[in-house]
Specification:
By secondary structure, the chain is of the alpha/beta class. The chain has helices at 17-30, 54-71, 117-124, 129-137, 147-152, 159-170, 172-175; strands at 7-12, 35-40, 76-87, 90-100, 105-109, 113-114. Strands 1, 2, 3, 4, 5 and 6 form a six-stranded mixed beta sheet that branches. Helix 1 (17-30) crosses helix 6 (159-170). It is an enzyme of class 3 (hydrolase).
C-alpha cells in the first residue's frame, strides 16, 4: 500500500482518547515506517448510549464509520462501539470494531468480558457501564481509562488492549487485499 509522503491519515469516530490511541497504536504496529496522523471526531452511533445487544453494538460502530466516511477524507476510518448482551452462559461486555477505507469495510469483534448479573440488571434499567463501574469501584471516568476490563481483571487487561487486538485482526483484509 502506498501513502502520500509515507503519511497515513486516520479518522476515529469518537473523541474518547482510549479509542483514538487504540487505532493509532494499531496503525503504528502495522505501518512502522509511516507517520500516522490519527484524530478523533464526534460521530453519532444512532443507537442507545449503552447498546444492549450484539446487533445494536455492531450497528453503532457501522454508523460511526459511515458518518466519518461521509464527512471526512482519510486513508482509514475506524469506530469502536462497546456493548453488552446476556448470552446463554451469562452477561458479558464486548466491542465491535469497524475499519474502513473509501472502498472497503471490515467488521471485527473483541473478546467477551463476563460481567456480574447484578451489573447487567442495572444496565437493563438504563444505566451505562462506565458510570456504573465508577460507582461500584469508586473510580472516576473509567471508560476513558482502563474500562470495566481493567477493573474486573485487576489491571491485567485494558480496554485499549482489547480494542487494539480487535482492530489489528480487522486489518487483515487490508494487509492482504489480493486474498480477500
Amino acid at each position: 500500500m502506498e501513502y502520500k509522503n509515507n503519511i497515513i491519515e486516520a479518522i476515529v469516530g469518537s473523541k474518547n482518547p482510549v479509542k483514538i490511541k487504540a487505532f493509532n497504536d494499531t496503525l503504528e504496529r502495522i505501518f512502522p515506517n509511516h507517520q500516522i496522523n490519527c484524530r478523533g471526531v464526534d460521530a453519532p452511533s444512532l443507537v442507545a448510549e449503552q447498546p444492549m445487544t450484539e446487533k445494536e453494538t455492531c450497528e453503532g460502530a457501522m454508523n460511526r464509520v459511515h458518518y466519518c466516511q461521509s464527512h471526512y477524507s482519510a486513508d482509514f476510518y475506524a469506530a469502536m462501539e462497546g456493548g453488552v448482551d446476556n448470552f446463554e452462559y451469562g452477561p458479558s461486555t464486548f466491542a465491535f470494531v469497524v475499519v474502513a477505507t473509501n472502498d472497503k469495510k471490515q467488521v471485527g469483534r473483541s473478546a467477551n468480558l463476563p460481567i456480574p448479573q447484578s451489573v447487567f440488571d442495572q444496565l437493563q434499567k438504563g444505566k451505562e457501564l462506565g458510570p456504573l463501574m465508577d460507582e461500584l469501584f469508586g473510580t472516576s471516568n473509567i471508560k476513558q481509562k482502563g474500562g470495566a476490563i481493567g477493573l474486573l481483571t485487576n489491571g491485567l487487561e485494558t480496554r485499549a488492549g482489547n480494542y487494539t487486538q480487535a482492530l489489528t485482526l480487522a486489518m487483515a483484509p487490508f494487509l492482504h487485499a489480493d486474498r480477500f
